[in-house]
């Protein structure tokens, strides 16, 4: 068993959380990287060095979450350097999520958009505008390292998914500012975007697989694998963070969305959420069975087949590994009463170094 992580097959102290997840997730058997401890130490030092954490409270909270364990579970076959890169990406996404999710007051969508626009510049210019601060600097480091490991085509796709993630954060901020509950029909796409899941799935081709050809990546079969696995991961997150998000009044959660759509008790909404996750896991397994047909239809050579198989295996690891880590991590617990752990990384619009509009 990986040091520092609870046995994923043991019932969690709150057995209700584990039981709310589909049994099919636990039936998936995937390995764990032996580099978890190195990744845990590295990611805290990386975040501290780039200013994503500076206070003792923020550093302690990041260390307690054990993102190296997370990366070890969801990229189990990655070489050490690639695992560290993936763990840093996860940390960056988590830090930005916390800026949006954990503040005591909702972000102003207009000021947030200005800030994210400056952050996004790094993916096109290698630089970023005034006011992006440590989040922009950390992304510049990630982008530089990623470009040395991924091909131009993969990096172009990653950039598009990163922009979708930033736009999803803006939509979340707008919903929160109004206290709106998302429509069920819209929720899946919004959740995948705002969760950054396709960003982390692009890293699958660096940390454990190999870059996929466009006819493979954009095929119906692989797209079904991506979206089904993404939904399972994002909705697992929703179930495991339900108590935390309910306590803070966060309405962007599958269980909350289902309850608003169907009424009834929260237990009814949890049962519906579990059924939806079971359905998406079945969708993944059906698409996985179609992979040999895709290989034949595209006349993939043995190396290309192996690349595809490796990527599918890592997607399986994401569903199982995220659930196992989610039951053990402190990240999904209720927020501390003292918000001192949350760094002020998004400046107020007036502090962003821009001249106000006349």
CATH architecture annotation name: Orthogonal Bundle
- Assembly type of the shown chains? single chain
CATH superfamily descriptor: Farnesyl Diphosphate Synthase
Supply the number of helical segments. 19
CATH topology, what is it called?
A: Farnesyl Diphosphate Synthase
Q: Class, according to the CATH hierarchy?
A: Mainly Alpha
Radius of gyration from CA coordinates: 20 Å
Q: Helix and strand string, N-terminal first?
A: HHHHHHHHHHHHHHHHHHH
- Please report the total strand number as a whole number: 0
Largest sheet: none
Structural class: mainly alpha
Q: Any idea how many domains?
A: 1
User: What's the shape?
Assistant: globular
β-sheet strand percentage: under 5%
Write a structural description:
Helix 14 (220-240) runs antiparallel to helix 17 (266-289). The chain starts with 14 loop residues before the first helix and ends in a 30-residue tail after the last helix. The radius of gyration is 20 Å and the shape is globular. It has helices at residues 15-19, 23-27, 36-49, 56-65, 67-74, 80-101, 109-120, 122-125, 133-149, 152-178, 184-194, 197-202, 214-217, 220-240, 242-248, 254-262, 266-289, 291-297, 302-328. It has a single domain, classed as Farnesyl Diphosphate Synthase, CATH 1.10.600.10. The chain contains 19 helices and no strands. The chain is mainly alpha-helical and 358 residues long.
